[in-house]
Amino acid sequence: MKSLLSLLILCLIVSAFVYAQETSGGKFSGLVFGDYFYKTGGDAQPFGSASQYSQPMAKDFQAFQLRRIYFIYDHTISQKFSAQFLIEGNDKALDPGGRHGVFIKTAFLEWKGIFSGSNLAIGLVPTPTWSWGVAEKIWNYRSLEKTIADFRGFGSASDIGIALRGKIDGDGMLSYIAMIGNGTGQKPENDRYKKYYGELNFKPVKELTVEAYADYEPVLNDKNVTTMKGVAAYQIPQGTLGVEVAQQIRVKDYANGSDRQPLGISAYVWASVPGVEKLNAVARYDFFNPDTKISTAGFTEQFFLIGLDYMPENNIHVMPNLWLNSFSDKSSAGVAKDSDIAFRLTFFYVYR
């Protein structure tokens, strides 16, 4: 409770500081998104997925929720140095009393142009897994759902460490991010091992983006985790068509010492509705196999999302949508599991 109170007091202090510093290099911004949802399918069962509408949430459950609140302060210290401090609140970060809490998401210093075309950041830094990579930006609808690598727990949005990012060529056709971090996300380190990240982003033409990503993390007892991810997207002002594929190799992940290899594939499209101002349509399909090495047990999952995005003003979004996660038994027994289905009215706004 004391830690939460300290963070809230810090938030107020930073707010006052930001207000005083607006004319001297400081910038305050943030965002909020949440929903009213009604779960129409999928009773709580002893075997489920990690999705937000799975167990123990039963059919006919309904609620208003805040899924994310950001408070961001960006400060330009000089032409060479800048810093960011970001506090997040969400429906999973709860205090001991079960109320919405907050935690520090990023806190880093960036040295711009440490050498030609590259910047160096140190602290609690956004990772290239999706935050500083292109995946979340291209998908564009984090307010509706995470990217597949995030959704299926393939990494963390930020990590304590050091990152180098920049352009490989002068035109920015090829850029990169290289990072070394603790591998514990926003938590302090708990062992001597480190996590190694690498990302390459290629834009052969203005409308096409291709990303290749990998990370590697050794852990105790000769275990290790390797993540490989690729993103390809065609983007125009009227919309985006994209694909993301993510694979992990988790060595000695099971108690018997065998490996686990989850795989996720996501395809999505969003576009402005012809003849209707301030309205986009969004659709997405994901396939997820928790372990491709096991073909006779467990379930594969198929995720579907369709919705509309109405923008009455810039940075304000009202989005009715259908969220559905279905299950297919990999065994010959044909075990049935109800789909988790939720109808939602999502709201999202940005303030800056």
Describe this protein's structure.
The protein has 352 residues and is mainly β. The protein has one domain (30-351): Porin. Helices cover 8% and strands 56% of the residues. The protein has helices at 2-21, 135-139, 148-151, and strands spanning 26-41, 62-76, 81-94, 100-115, 118-126, 158-167, 174-181, 195-205, 208-218, 224-236, 239-251, 263-272, 279-289, 299-313, 316-329, 340-351. Strands 1-2-3-4-5-6-7-8-9-10-11-12-13-14-15-16 form a 16-stranded antiparallel beta barrel. Strand 8 (195-205) and strand 9 form a beta hairpin.
List the helices and strands and how they pair.
Elements: H1 2-21, E1 26-41, E2 62-76, E3 81-94, E4 100-115, E5 118-126, H2 135-139, H3 148-151, E6 158-167, E7 174-181, E8 195-205, E9 208-218, E10 224-236, E11 239-251, E12 263-272, E13 279-289, E14 299-313, E15 316-329, E16 340-351
Antiparallel strand pairs: 1-2, 1-16, 2-3, 3-4, 4-5, 5-6, 6-7, 7-8, 8-9, 9-10, 10-11, 11-12, 12-13, 13-14, 14-15, 15-16
